[in-house]
Write a structure and sequence with these properties.
Blueprint lengths: L1 H20 L14 E16 L5 E16 L3 E18 L2 E21 L4 E21 L2 E4 L2 E2 L1 E14 L4 E12 L3 E3 L8 E17 L1
Antiparallel strand pairs: 1-2, 1-11, 2-3, 3-4, 4-5, 5-6, 5-8, 7-10, 8-9, 9-11, 10-11
Length: about 210
């Protein structure tokens, strides 16, 4: 997981420096004149739940980001929007085995790169921070179900890199690798019988990318 994080960051930095060095080597016709674009990507993967007092465990992840990107210059931009993550899977704690389902809503603020590698293929990448809150949290034990165990906002870092095929100057479709990880924890509601702090140290996914220039 840490290797993937480092790889994504290095790839982003490399692409940023490479594109900056090549900035004058391509004609303006390679780029859309639109300042705004809508970018969405979603995929499947896994997440690692890091607990302070209880054992860590893995969850399956379905993720999607919906972003509005504002282009600055020819290749770089700032993007924001919303992201939705659905996590599910089994784990073990001092209370016994359980099945865990969680829905998360996040608001990212990202630096983006959008660069034509050729007439039809382009690189899409982003890196930045997010704030995130829990929409649904449910633990199913043998003796019953406990809801809304964890609550509140926390913050993290995310990155992504992908390749897209340009159908025309407005629409493109491709594949994206995405990673995110919290750097602050959320507290449990002690009235639910669980006293702990928790964060998602790695949510990694791969899936489809769609972009349209507005």
């Amino acid at each position: 997981m840490k290797i993937l994080n480092i790889t994504l960051v290095i790839a982003f930095i490399f692409s940023f420096n490479f594109l900056n060095a090549q900035d004058n080597d391509h004609h303006d016709d390679d780029y859309s004149t639109s300042k705004f674009s809508f970018v969405t990507y979603g995929g499947i993967g896994y997440a690692v739940v890091d607990n302070d007092n209880e054992p860590n465990y893995n969850l399956n992840a379905n993720s999607a980001d919906f972003l509005i990107n504002y282009r600055i210059g020819k290749r770089y931009g700032i993007a924001t929007g919303i992201g939705i993550n659905q996590l599910s899977g089994t784990g073990f704690s001092s209370a016994g085995n359980f099945y865990h389902e969680r829905g998360l809503l996040k608001i990212p603020v990202l630096l983006s790169v959008d660069y034509n590698l050729s007439e039809k293929v382009r690189l899409v990448a982003n890196i930045g921070l997010y704030g995130q809150t829990i929409l649904k949290d449910e633990y199913s034990f043998v003796g019953g179900t406990v809801e809304d165990v964890y609550e509140g906002w926390n913050f993290g870092f995310q990155s992504g890199i992908g390749l897209a095929y340009n159908f025309n100057q407005k629409i493109s479709l491709g594949i994206m690798v995405h990673n995110q990880g919290d750097f602050t924890r959320i507290d449990s509601d002690t009235s639910k019988g669980i006293t702990d702090e928790q964060k998602i140290v790695g949510l990694n996914s791969i899936g489809l990318l769609f972009a349209i220039n507005l």
